[in-house]
Write a structure and sequence with these properties.
85 residues; alpha/beta; 3-stranded parallel beta sheet; 3 helices; 3 strands; 31% helix
C-alpha cells in the first residue's frame, strides 16, 4: 500500500459495530471525544453502524456539544476494509 494515499490531515478514529448494544460502548467513545475536545485535541471520530438515529447517541453528541463525531451509517461488508483503512 502507498503510505501517502492513506494520510489524513486530521487524526481519525473509526468505529464499526453495533450501536444499540451497550457492551460495544459507543457511548464511551463519544464521551472520550468530548474530553479530548476539552483538551484541545484535533481529531475526527467516525462511527459506522446502522440505526444510529434510533439510539441515544445523537442526543448525547448534541448535549455534550461534541463537534468531532460524524455518523457514517451502515457500511456493507464489501466496504468495511475501505472504511477501516
Amino acid at each position: 500500500p502507498d503510505p501517502e494515499k492513506h494520510q489524513n490531515k486530521v487524526f481519525t478514529i473509526r468505529y464499526l459495530g453495533g450501536l444499540g448494544a451497550p457492551h460495544k460502548n459507543a457511548e464511551a467513545l463519544i464521551r472520550t471525544a468530548y474530553l479530548l475536545e476539552q483538551k484541545g485535541a484535533k481529531f475526527a471520530l467516525e462511527i459506522a453502524g446502522g440505526g444510529y438515529s434510533k439510539t441515544m447517541l445523537p442526543q448525547l453528541i448534541k448535549d455534550l456539544k461534541v463537534k468531532s463525531v460524524k455518523f457514517i451509517g451502515f457500511v456493507p461488508d464489501h466496504q468495511i476494509r475501505q472504511f477501516l483503512a
